[in-house]
Write a structure and sequence with these properties.
With 202 residues, the chain is an alpha/beta fold. It contains 11 helices and 7 strands. The two termini are 14 Å apart.
Length: 202
Amino acid sequence: MSTVSVVVWDVGNVIVRWDPRTLYSTIFPDPAERDRFLGQVCTMAWHAPTDRGLSFDDNCAALAAKHPEHRDAIWAWKHRWGEMFSGAIPETEAAIAALHDRGVRQYALTNMSHETEDATFAMSPAFALLDGRIVSGREGVMKPDAAIFQLTCDRFGFAPDEALFVDDSATNIEAARALGFATHHFTDPAALRPALEGLGLL
């Protein structure tokens, strides 16, 4: 019998769709040029420090100094951040609402800048149904570090084996599983509800 009574949600590409290509397809219409920019200039490794608390201004300024030919495109990462999103994922919104109706405690655990937190958490009414959130940019630690998973458990008062962790990152899923969480690797929105039902949450 499942002991899981809590759900911990990732945000990007689990609750809302996020992809830098959504923005940069308008800046670099040529796919090869866009891929070069995102693969060599505004990379996810470059972005990661903002998820640990570095300001967008500091991160963009440092990169623009190295790549002055791409200055405007680099600063678009900050000024046009909202254009990287393409709406909420209906299956996840429905699951959050159904779990809320059943009284299941739900939390967000996300790698996200504190500067974009409020705007992102306003993108879906489902966020208002969550009981709390942990944002890496405010805590100075990010997934897959075990410390942020333990912080989530300690702050909200549950043990890892009482929680289901849902994330689109296989690396984060592996980290949570190693700590004792039940996990669901979010790759197909249609597979979410059956996973929740299988644990007796719905």
